[in-house]
Design a protein that fits this description.
The chain is of the alpha+beta class and 516 residues long. Helices cover 22% and strands 18% of the residues. Among the domains are: 91 residues, no CATH class; 270 residues, PPM-type phosphatase domain (Phosphatase 2c, domain 1). It is built from ten helices and 17 strands.
Length: 516
Amino acid sequence: MSQQGDRPATTDDWWGRLYDESARDTGPAGTPDDTIDDRFDSAADTLGGGDDVPSTRSYGHAVDAIAVDDDEDDAGDDEDEGVGSASRPPAWWESPGGRPVTRTPAPAPEPAPEPSVPSPAPVAPAPLTPRPRAPWEPPPAAFDPTDPAADPTTPPAPAVPRDPRAADPRPPAPVPPPPPSAPAARISHVGDSPPTYEAEPTALPAADAEELDQLVADTVLDGARYGTYTLRAASLRGDSARYRGEPRRDALLTARFGAGPGALVLVAVATGARATEGAHLSAADACRWIGGAVGRSHSRLAEDIRAGRRGDLKSGLHRLTDRTYGKLRARAAELGRDPEEYTASLRCLLLSADPDCRTRVFFGVGGGGLFRLRDGAWQDLEPLVPEPSEIRGAPVVGYGSVPTGARAATEQTPDGDRLTMDLEITKAPGPLVEEPVPPPPEPFRFRASVARPGDTLLLTSVGLAEPLRGVPALGGELAARWADGEPPGLATYLADVALRAKGYADDRTAVGVWEA
């Protein structure tokens, strides 16, 4: 391989090692004329060099590729690159007087030089083969085929730090729906200010070790359902009595007599006289005695209610009420007390257990209230009777009064004097009255009405009747609570009855009847 010609003695040793003819060719060919030029031409043809790859065969140089340009191009190259300048002495491989050429240093020893190839057009990256998950790695998230970002073959995008001042490009996290609102808490009082006393009991009444049967509970609650109605009854001590440790003056009795459709339900409410000793005892006696009288006559009373005999009911219940008050007066005499001190207001309801009977009967004596809630409005059903102070009339004949009218024989003198003619009729002596005659008892009250579906009848003692009439907000609140017509449970009914109003601190007893 002596095709390179003579070379100076100062040639580097690597050149001799590379082109020493004694060295064995690393890639000998099957033909004896296998030269570097042949291999270069073969590589150029394989890579498609064609005319763009200069041939080394024309210039007799087999080591480096020499770029040959026109004279105009040489000048431009010299100006830009600073090579091939006329002030440079010719190199040893340039022939004297010959054409200057530009020579590129040979690269490191390679089996074959790789010519420059144009960059191919960008193509889509090949799908990535999923890598098996290591045992310590968490399982991948569920794949959503509709989410392009969830494609496991797509390489993750590089993390870009987000400016904290910029708005978050991510969609906001879904806000969970608010929990269902709790029902509004029921108010414990009506009016602009709360009542003076506390709502819960404070002091217990004084007890006698020998008369423990005379103690009464702070609250009594009862209920039932017969025919087409539901009954609710509650009696609770007032705020004033709870604070002072006084017993509840209201008494409540609920009783059923008989069975089946002919059964009769009695609810009695009594209130002892205010500011009297043993007021709770007189109220309990009134309820017990009227209950006994009704129980002994319940068959006749139930028949009259189902038949609608209003007149018979009124007269019969009037007699039973008189007997009850007669026993109260007798009991007062036994205790050595005035009848006015040992008495009570008494109000009662009679309800038939027959589903076909909707007649409701009310009777009693004394203060209290009878109301009906119909179509969302309260109606006061209290029978109108004159008060004792409003009763007017002549004194009863036979008790020292002067007869008038046809029974009196009078004569008038010319001077205008009037004389009573003595008919010489013997008069029976009048009763010996050493003390003033007591005022007559309060009038007897009676009412019978036919209930309609959806009605609510409310019988109350004085402690609830007065605020219902004097505080419209109380009636409005109860009407709103009972507007749906469904009877409340016992605990709810007790809370409704206990709804307070400032200025009204007496005992409260209420009997409610809800018509289906």
